[in-house]
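Reopening this one. Same input as before:
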Amino acid sequence: MTTLVAGLGALASVFAIYRLWRILPSLGTLWRSVLLCGCAYAPAVLWPAAGLLLFLKLPAIGLYIVIAFSALGELNTGEVALVRALFLRQVAPEPTSSRSVVNE
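Same output, byte for byte:
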């Protein structure tokens, strides 16, 4: 039942994107997505994780999917930059002024 609902959600997403922007994923993208879903399903089922281990399992599978899509050439340079920014988020140092302020 969960797979059916997820599949219907994916179809609804593709339909919504088509209605908004009149674009559809290519057949190659569709097949690569099906392949990666199957490859991600295997560890999801075979890796028993309860409790706090679930917080390791789900990000690991998600990271695998992002790396696999990138390795298959599905992500363009802008999308790769977005993923890098999410994972390598750095706080910019506060600018310092060369003038000192003296309170009177």
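So the earlier flakiness isn't reproducible anymore. For the record, The mean pLDDT is 84.
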